[in-house]
Amino acid sequence: MQLQQRIYAFVKLGDFLSQFSNEVIQKKDNIEHNELFFEGFKHQLKLAQEHNGWFTIENIQFALKGWVDALTHDNLTKWLTPYNMVTNTPKQVAIIMAGNIPLVGFHDFLSVLITGHKVLVKQSSNDKHLLPYLTKYLEFVEPDFKGKITFTEAKIEKFDAVIATGSNNTARYFEYYFKGKPSIIRNNRNSVAVLTGKETEADLKNLAEDIFRYYGLGCRNVSKLFLPKNYNFDAFFNGMYHWHPIIDKAKYANNYDYNKAVYLMSEFDMLENGFLMIKEDQSYASPIATVFYEYYEDANQLKERLKTDNDQIQCIVSNGFIEKEIAFGATQKPQLWDYADSIDSIEFLLTIS
So where does this one cross the membrane (predicted)? Predict the structure, then answer.
């Protein structure tokens, strides 16, 4: 199968997903194999929501919209042009996927197949409905993918390389278990925002998207703020306010109530507005419904701190503060070339041939 065949197949998949990525699901006339797959995928969306309470239709559709935007011929070509896309001998690449947000492992899945390899997928039990169905669609639009995609719930065996994502504890296990194979092992990371106090109202409203999207469960969600001394929290909370309906979601509300009770019983100092708590804490990983913060006095010292802690940080949100920063509101809209943990998975996959 040639590279252009693979690209064209994923472009068609993006076209198919475009029917489901808006608030109103709407069937289109010009989508290949739509009569066979449209109603079935609607059912998979329903199953995904029923199986995992964090996977609301809003968050699933947001994830799908991201892939619709990414899976265009122009984007795929721009992504792959810098590489020498020659796969001499296709290998079997195992992917162990996380399940914290919808289709979180899709970039790895796409990367393996677009480089000409075969993929062996072990999904998280939290996100097991969407990808297998989309795989069937992919095999219909490009029959040469048949036999190159396998899903398993058993122990992973007979593979040549692995991409695995998990917690810090499971990452240590992965590193030991897969030490004889070419691998990318990812562990817990969190995202931070550096504020100066000069942010506009629009900046802070956009920051709310970085905090609350997917209920804060993604590694690209901002869980920690760095603030100048004497920061005005009123501006921050005003920027957050339009997300207040999130407290109406039972799973989020339960976490909010529980964590608030823990803080109060422990007599921790914290500020809250009825749906979000902020607490001064040196950790990067904050509980659901909580954002940690630290004050800084010297911008250069903070830059050095962020460089030192690079292996704990996925994204840095700021405006003119640091190289490779991400704009407010953009953490959950990565491009194809925005690699998790800054590890180039395409380069890795092209070197295992």
Answer: none
Q: How many structural domains are present in the chain? A: 2
With 0-12 / 13-18 / 19 or more C-beta atoms within 10 angstroms meaning exposed / middle / buried, residue 156 is middle
What's the pLDDT tens digit per position in 79-120? 999 999 987 799 999 999 999 999 999 999 999 999 999 999
In whole angstroms, what is the distance from residue 223 CA to residue 193 CA? 8
Taking Cα atoms as reference points, which of 298, 291, 286 lies closest to residue 196?
Answer: 298
Question: Domain for residue 228, yes or no?
Answer: yes
For 343, the 3-state DSSP assignment is: coil
Q: Which helix (H) or strand (E) holds 122?
A: strand 118-122
* Residue 255 domain boundaries: 190-317
Strand (E) or helix (H) holding 61: helix 57-70
- Whether residues 239 and 184 fall in one domain: no
Take residue 309 and report the two structure tokens written for it: 């802690």
In a domain, 333, yes or no: no
Between CA 102 and CA 99 the distance in angstroms is 7
Are residue 154 and residue 247 in the same domain, yes or no? no
